Amino acid sequence: MTTATHFTIPYFQYLDQHSQIAPDAPILARNYEKLLSLYKLMVLLRTFDTKAITLQRTGKMGTYASTLGQEAVSVAIGNVMAKEDVLCPDYRGYGAQIQRGVKLSEILTYWGGNEHGSCFVNNAKDFPISVPIGTHYLHAAGVAVAIKYRRQSRIAVALCGDGGTSEGDFYEAINVAGCWKLPVVFVINNNQWAISVPRTLQTGAKTLAQKAIAGGFEGIQVDGNDIIALHTVLEHAAEKARKGEGPTLVEAITYRLCDHTTADDANRYRDAEELKQAWEAEPIKRLRNYLVDQGAWGPKEEEALAKESTQTVEEAVKEYLSVSPQPVSAMFDYLYATVPHDLAMQREEAIGGTH
Length: 355
Prior knowledge:
Helix content: 40-55%
Shape: globular
CATH class of the largest domain: Alpha Beta
Largest sheet: 6 strands, parallel
CATH superfamily of the largest domain: Thiamin diphosphate (ThDP)-binding fold, Pyr/PP domains
Order of helices and strands: EHHEHHHEHEEEHEHEHHHH
Number of domains: 2
CATH architecture of the largest domain: 3-Layer(aba) Sandwich
Number of strands: 8
CATH topology of the largest domain: Rossmann fold
Distance between the termini: 75 Å
Number of helices: 12
Structural class: alpha/beta
Strand content: 5-15%
């Protein structure tokens, strides 16, 4: 017997869970101004997240998908993307969206059940939040086909959870991206849970990054709680795609500190000790401790940031609550260009046209 082929999956971590920096850390580790900007975005995202859950619990918003403990992933994605790139986000990609012009109030409006929340005032190119699992990977591949056909120097980026990697759409997107060498970056937020199904029961693959091998391109695993490693790996993937060197699949290892959504109760299936350990490794605490150790951050700055973030979120909430509610008929208005006859009848009934 001979070996047909072999492969390796590299793993990157520069800032460990004890906030200790590796000797081979990139220059970003000493760029405290840049790290502070990333830290502030993560804090804003967590402040927003907390408020959004409160809105849902008090009946002022619908079901909401939290990003608690996973802030570094979407923040890093948004930070490495160029303005002309195209984002195809899942329902935890807020950190990327807000850096690309999407308003916090628009995200709230979306989760409030108003389709106008998907019509971004300051961003007409990115796709709206995708709740269906994995389908937007194909959307990103399609966008990348158009980009390559037009010979443009921009890229498409898609984000999904670990559960999305078991969907047929995921594999189809991986296959076409590798076959056609598309300018796309696929990111997996491996938060260890596909709703209530743990990572160990959801797929037999040793890593999720190795699923790129089936598509014939590079798969990388990275500590998703280390913003320095995340930013570095994603920047590499984005530049490679932009140069016409094909796609990359990045698996970011995180942990979902929250429920799957506000309609879930993770206490029914999640181990309390495992959760406790995960809190010790979360991204905001990790970066904050590092910045404090380097003399780049302190209690006064932290207090000021908390006040600023709270004010920004409260202003977004006021804007969201001032949005006029959609009429009942709106539920029929955004799926088809021309409403089919049976739905048209239902629409008329909904608005009182028939009794």
